[in-house]
Amino acid sequence: MIKKYLLIVSLCFASQFYAQNKTDKIPDTLRSKNYDYLFERIEDLEKNRNKQSLYLRYFLFKAKSEKNAEEIVNGYKNYVYYSSDNLKLIYADSMINSAKKAKNNVLIGSAYLSKGILYYSQKKHNYALDSYLLADTFISKTNDKYLIYKVKYNIANIKYYLGFYNEAISLFRECITYFKENNTRGYLNSLHSLGLCYNHIGNYGLCSETNEKGILEGEKLVNTEMTAYFNHSEGINQYFKNNYASAIEKITNALPAIRRNKDFANESVAYFYIGKSYWELKKPEIAVAYFKKVDTIFDNTGYIRHDLLENYQLLVNYYKSKDNLRSQLHYIEKLLRADRLLDSKYYYLSGKIYKDFDTKKIVLEKRNIQKLFDKRKHNDIIFTSIIALLFLSLVLIAFLHIRNKKIYRQKFEELMKKSEAPNKNETTNITKGIEDINPETVGILLKQLERFEKDKKFLEKDLTAAKLTVTLGSNAKYLSKIIYHARGKKFVEYINDLKIDYLIQLLNEDKMLRNYKNKALAEEVGFSSTQRFANAFFARTGMPPTYFIEELKKGLS
């Protein structure tokens, strides 16, 4: 691998040396041309690589001969954009080294940003994020607003990919405000990404409005490059609105432009939602053909994201209906491979499971099917074993369901009795165990905590121990000790429990609130994600929020 890399580097330097020796063959008419003219010719000759290479070489040669640091970086940036894939990263590193030699924060930040965008286009999101953060380190020291917002836009894309949609929405809105007056493509890209976020949080109406606005703004600004992407986004949105025929039409119309751009990620997503639409229209054979296209892209590029895991779940279900154990095993293997890839690349998402398709359950199902498959080679009586296994699974599921219902019911009754009793925080005799803190300081902090709880300041989103420490004018060590001894909890549990207790009070008092989805309830009490809200609710009450609300509604009826 190292030899291969060294060979590529040597070839790259050889080509540069050869390019410099050929400058005497560059037409004299070019020597008087400025950088803008050369760049325009580079763009215009995208389909004629031989002629384009002349302008690429002369642009960089001119910049080096004039010792123009900014244009040297731009010269390498041109190569990053227009060179072959195996050389892009090498040119990106040359671009960064040239920027560092200039000791210019704008150039260094811009170079790292371009490398991050290159990584992102290759779907190497971890490397992209590292480059974006390095870019931000340098750009934040400057007053270059365009680059500052370009960094924000690209970090927002990473947040979107990782599923932090509300955080991404906030950043995309900032970018839209800035780019609307300063950069047409940045403005349209930000609108498109905002629409995608609205779709993922379930606000399909706003998603449609944003897509429609994007298309109209593109026509108004005479830039229709993003039209296919807005149609692609709207097609997916139509799927979630249950308009399956419209979804197929819009996504299919968008596909040619997406393929021309070699955008394999959006191509994969397009095939998945066309397939899902046919699946919902009860045309599984057509759907499976599209699901296999998603699988082919995964094989060829390694691209996968969490919502695309369902692609394999549906393929497994299809072949299960056909009693085809070999294909079931094949696609379960693919599902596990995809899941492992996501887990290794995004370890902070490893606890997140797509819907209720638990990895352990998949592994167990794979083992069972493998055993059945091996036995079937020798004995057709295996059919009886399958029936027995399914029966036992159903019995186990029923048993667990009944047991959980009983536990949840018991927890619900205990919670309702507790909520009827007066809720008082015990704050006496807590100085034992914290003798290292002045009793007067303890008393002051306790009163501040009581005021904090009474004023419901715990509802603030993304509240941290550091923020609360600053608000109370204390220090983190004292605050943590006093919360632990006065409330018997660590900081995160303390804040989460206050939020959940307050929400339970609201649900008891406000019947309309019981119709809210988990996402809206999480927002109501300041949780940054639905998953964190659900985990906190279960930890506090011993039951899911949906069960608690159902029981409240039963009591009402």
From TrEMBL:
Residues 1-19 form the signal peptide. Residues 459-551 form the HTH araC/xylS-type domain. Keywords: Coiled coil, Cytoplasm, Membrane, Repeat, Signal, TPR repeat, Transmembrane, Transmembrane helix. InterPro entries: Bac_ResReg_Asp_Phosphatase, HTH_AraC, TPR-like_helical_dom_sf, TPR_rpt. The keyword Transmembrane helix applies. It is found in: Cytoplasm. Residues 442-469 form a coiled coil. It comes from the Bacteria. The chain crosses the membrane at residues 381-402. Belongs to the Rap family. This is AraC family transcriptional regulator. It comes from Flavobacterium frigidarium.
